[in-house]
Amino acid sequence: METRSLPILLLTLVALLIANLMFGAVSLPFKQVIEGFQVGNANYFTVHEYRFPRTILAMLVGAMMALAGALVQGVIRNPLASPDVLGVSHGAGLAAVFYMTFFPNADIDWLPTVALCGSLIAALMLWWLCGQHSSTIKLAITGVALAALYASCIDFLMLVKPLEINNALLWLTGSLWGRGWNQLAMLLPWLLLIPCALWLAKPLNLIHLGDDSAISLGVKASTLRLLSLAIAVGLTASCVAICGPIGFLGLVAPHLTRKLVGGRHQLLLPSTMLVGAILLLLADLVARTIDPPIELPAGIMTAIIGAPYFLWLLFRTK
Amino acid sequence: MIFTRLPFIGQCVILLLFLLVCGWISLFSWSVITVTPLDALHALYNMNEDSIAQHIVHDLRFPRVLIGIMVGANLAAAGVIMQGLTQNPLASPSVLGINAGAALGMATVSSLAPWFGLLGTSVAAMIGGGVAWAFVMLLGSAWRSGNEHGRLVLAGVAISALCAALTKAVIIIAEDQAAGVLTWLAGSLTDARWQTFDALWPVCLIGLVGAMLISPTLNLLQLGDDNAKNLGVSLMWVKLGGSFLVLLLVGSAISSVGAIGFVGLLVPHMARMLTGQDHRKFLPIAMILGACLVVLSDTVSRAIIYPAETPAGAILALIGAPFFIYLVRKRTL
Questions:
Q1: Does residue B30 come out as left (phi exceeding 0), alpha (psi in the -120 to 50 range) or beta?
Q2: Residue A291 — φ and ψ, nearest 5°?
Q3: Do B321 and A149 touch (CB under 8 A)?
Q4: Distance to chain A for B42, nearest Cα, Å
Q5: For the segment A202-259, what is each residue's pLDDT rounded down to a tens digit?
Q6: What is the residue range of A84's domain?
Q7: How many structural domains compose chain A?
Q8: What value of ipTM does the predicted structure carry?
């Protein structure tokens, strides 16, 4: 019954993958896309070097961000929580903006690493402030407060050094523009976190019964919470490092999925990855094709697509 | 502390004197053209038409200080009312999304439909802030009694994130005015002139008087919704009226100087530390403190990368955000 929507999701994903390869500043028929994978073809650069890695990257990043969102919502047990409330993406943003404004001539290839360090430091900071024994809601609010702190530092940096403002703003909205094989290779090691997250599905179901019931059923609630949040931080940090903070994906995708397949994490976690991938592919496709050759950042598209849906959903469930 | 033991009037007088000194310092300090402290005083009551320094004080600095005072008082009063209405120590215009909503309204109107002018943007800021606040209250189920504090804040964060994303979209779509809009979003008193003052003071006056009138009722709300009802408070009207006041105060402040954050969060707590829980006392103290804070941070904002200026809002955020963390850690949520 609940698995009925899975084939539809898979089909949509495949259709979007193909559409992402076909459309853009130059539209290619399907046949040329296939031919474009051969070395020496006229479209080889467009398809193989440009669109293909970008599409794969969008799929992976979407899936990982959505998975992180589902984990955080599962642990904090609040539908309004998202990886953003951990302050991780703001930490990455601060590190990146700091790097861009103070070392404008530095190598741009180091940016993902810098952002990654920033987000991991932000996570450690949250950990240091909260410790192991504080309640999850307190953890979330502390994360929000930290995020506010990072955001105000970002604003301050950008206003003091206004010359770099456009680059920084563009990075901060999150975009897949110009990302290729190199970035894809950087993301690959982090894919190992996905099976770890899926392995947590069953205990996450139990934690929904409340801490006491979960503990009496043999789940170490605090360890599980720590583990899931750590995995969520890793997933978010790696994605943000490469694409910048793409908003709302982690918030909206799990909601949408819960509506489609219900709340069992064994099913929810894999399907939310599908939904996340679909959302980001769609956002990137629209962002690229709405007014070519100008590209909107995909982060804005996810916000515009995701936000109204999110509001509607929240009011429906009230 | 000796200050907390003073009678209420004494506290008010000391704080007002402090505010006067802050305002006076702000009139003459960090100016590219040298302004002496005496120039600043002369310009106010006995102006010498030939002196450039006195013109600067009269045309630029004086309205700026006055607007800083009003904005600070407005935001502090709004914070007090919000914390009273929701019984939530973290409630404030910036945390619960009003600032972000107002900024969205303002940015949309000023970049997509600039022909509306100043009145249009203030109305847009108020509408945007109002819609965001309504959403947050509905999502955080703040109208019901016994609500969790965390839920309201998370709702505020979600709505703020939403508004911020849309604002960014508007900025990126509507041309290369990023730096200008961003400065405005951070909140800056740089462009405060007499005409801003003229537009601000009537609204400010109505809002502040309204806040004073509602403060005895806020005391009753502290007893809990049920007790307040038993004492003859009409909850719905108080909450609606309070929300309207908040919108008036925040909307007018934001439309004249931009989204200055964290005053509404910071100041009520400072005032409560000084005077205790009685709203009739700590509301005026909060207003004066808010005014001092904004005027001071405006002065600092001119000093920090002199002769260029940083927005005062950015400075306030740098002070306010650590305080927010401190509050979260101290309170049991």
A1: left
A2: -155, 65
A3: yes
A4: 34
A5: 888 888 887 788 888 888 888 888 888 889 999 998 998 888 888 788 888 888 888 8
A6: 2-317
A7: 1
A8: 0.77
Provide the pLDDT for residue B79.
93
How many whole angstroms separate alpha carbon A228 and alpha carbon A231? 5
Partners of A248 on chain B (C-beta within 8 Å) are 161-162, 165
CB pair distance less than 8 Å for A155 and B162:
no
Taking CA atoms, A203 is separated from A219, A235, B17, in Å, by 6, 19, 61
Which of B154, B155, B311 is nearest residue A159 as measured by Cβ atoms?
B311
Is the pTM higher than 0.80? The answer reads: yes
| Structure confidence by residue, pLDDT tens digits, A252-285 | 888 888 888 888 888 899 999 999 999 999 999 9
Contact status, residue A72 vs residue A82, Cβ threshold 8 Å: yes
Contact between B321 and A155 using a beta-carbon 8 Å cutoff: no
CATH code of the domain covering residue A172: 1.10.3470.10
Peptide bond before residue A293 is cis, with ω within 30 degrees of 0: yes
Contact between chains at B138 and A78 (C-beta distance less than 8 A): no
- The pLDDT tens digits for A62-104 are 999 999 999 988 888 777 778 877 888 889 989 988 888 888 7
Q: Is the predicted pLDDT of residue B61 greater than 60, yes or no?
A: yes
A149, A155, A158, best to mutate vs chain B, most B CBs in 10 Å: A155
Domain architecture of chain B: domains with CATH? 59-330 (1.10.3470.10)
Q: Count CB pairs under 8 A between chains A and B.
A: 133
